[in-house]
Structures are given as C-alpha cells and as structure tokens.
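To make the argument concrete, we let one protein speak, a sequence paired with a row of structure tokens, as a model reads it:
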Amino acid sequence: MSKSEGAELPVLDTGAVPCCPPIAAGELSPADAEKMAAIFKALSDPVRLRLFSKVASYAGGEACVCDISDVGVSQPTVSHHLKKLREAGLLTSERRGTWVYYRVAPSVVAAMSAMLDLRT
C-alpha cells in the first residue's frame, strides 16, 4: 500500500456503544452501567476531554493528530490519551500517509446525550 492510500487503524471492540435508556427512565442494568462508565471514565481526564473537544470542534469534522497535540503533554502521552478515547468508542481514526486523522463517533455521543436526558 502506498503512503497516499488511507488505511483504517484497528480499534479494540470494547462493546462501548451504549444502548441505554435515559437515566430517568429507570435503574440501569449492570451491563449498561459498565458500558457507560467506560465512556465517561475515558472523558474524566482533563487532557482527554481537551483532545475530544479539539476533535469535535475542528473544521470539517476531523482533525489531524498534528493539529491537536498542543495540550501541554508530550506526543507519546497524547497518543496514549487518543488511544484511550478510541478504545472507549468516542473517536474513530484513519491513517493517511504518516498522519492519523480523528473523528468523533456520533452514535456514542448521541447515546451519552440520550442517557443523560432527564425528560421521561
């Protein structure tokens, strides 16, 4: 494969895509609680939250790692945090040449929003 061709990076399947009812609709099942806790845990770190925010707000809906890595930590630490966000299902990634581009996974964000909806 040439460097100009995009290759999808593997993402660990953690089962993190939630299918949970709104929190006000009733008690979460243990499985749903674990799924959602993994997502919220990934966002509980300030650096990860900043990286997620940078990707979400980037023009065009995707951001190159080269454009979002200025969060006050070293490049290997940025890579670690991006990996955690991918494993939680919050980001998707695609390698293009030597750079990796990240996008927010809209289904996971929509599910988090739906779960936190207090309207029943």
Observations:
- Residues 1-18 have pLDDT under 50 and may be disordered.
